[in-house]
């Protein structure tokens, strides 16, 4: 029964996978909310919430002094220079498009197809391959990789990848686009951020062959897919009732990464080196310029956020010379931010006074934490002026909960 359902799911493809499992996602979520043990675990796990930890304070940039003969930020002290990057400006000048060999298949130029990746950690007879969408352009160019749902409950990225990829025409594309819309398929089916062993996959890259389940899955994805990428966009959402303005997290001290961010129209870009174990961090260490794209909140499909993500990826494809867009509108530049999370000082119920994307000034009240028993109202104020690039939705919070992510416009390094 289960097996038949799974087979059907796989055959029916991504769209119905998404629709079918949304029900499962909701059901699983409802189940979790009722379970007090689970609740405790969730609260404990807030401590290692990527959305917060990744950019709790964006670190100062190490831009070289003007006139110093330090050639490039990538040589900054403390960074092991990765062995000669596979992928800086133009990966290798390919005269003609060639077949792409990936996951045991060979995809001819001008073709798109669906491959499958199996991390080989399941019971062989029940193993459920993870779909990988591949478009090999008729013309030569770089390999762009898109990954979604590394956290299984983050749905916006799945739809961003579907729309972006199904809009591309293989005979007009220069280069290849490789998309893994649902990296954490077991998590996706349970409506969970985590793997079945309750580990956060985005803490285990590049992984290893003899470690935990998460290490093995990470290693398999990294070796069989990610190493084929010349650039990577890993798409996430805010976690656990936090929402993010569409934005990139990028290590702006790395000149190849900084260059990559310039392709994203109208995106907010927050500087963050990321921490060890994150997919983008591991990929950058391996010489693959990578960014995390954050859009909206988990367990939801948000049209506005999805559109912003698709537009931005389309502009990247254009700026990388992979497609040519007919129309460009608006202010086609990314905006760079330094940022800081403001935390609740008291526990209670959070009520926000501002909305995502609002501009705020120093000292402005962003929201209140209301004590439901004593009726005390504790205001939360902005410590600096800027824009709300991420925030918690109204909910019960405890002291220390990261509530508002305030971004201050920053200089673009190297400009
Ligand atoms: Zn995530």
Automatic annotation (TrEMBL):
<keyword id="KW-0862">Zinc</keyword>
<feature type="region of interest" description="Disordered">
    <location>
        <begin position="48"/>
        <end position="100"/>
    </location>
</feature>
<feature type="domain" description="Succinylglutamate desuccinylase/Aspartoacylase catalytic">
    <location>
        <begin position="140"/>
        <end position="317"/>
    </location>
</feature>
<dbReference type="Pfam" id="PF24827">
    <property type="entry name" value="AstE_AspA_cat"/>
</dbReference>
<dbReference type="InterPro" id="IPR055438">
    <property type="entry name" value="AstE_AspA_cat"/>
</dbReference>
<protein>
    <submittedName>
        <fullName>Succinylglutamate desuccinylase/aspartoacylase family protein</fullName>
    </submittedName>
</protein>
<keyword id="KW-0378">Hydrolase</keyword>
<dbReference type="InterPro" id="IPR053138">
    <property type="entry name" value="N-alpha-Ac-DABA_deacetylase"/>
</dbReference>
<feature type="signal peptide">
    <location>
        <begin position="1"/>
        <end position="30"/>
    </location>
</feature>
<keyword id="KW-0479">Metal-binding</keyword>
<keyword id="KW-0732">Signal</keyword>
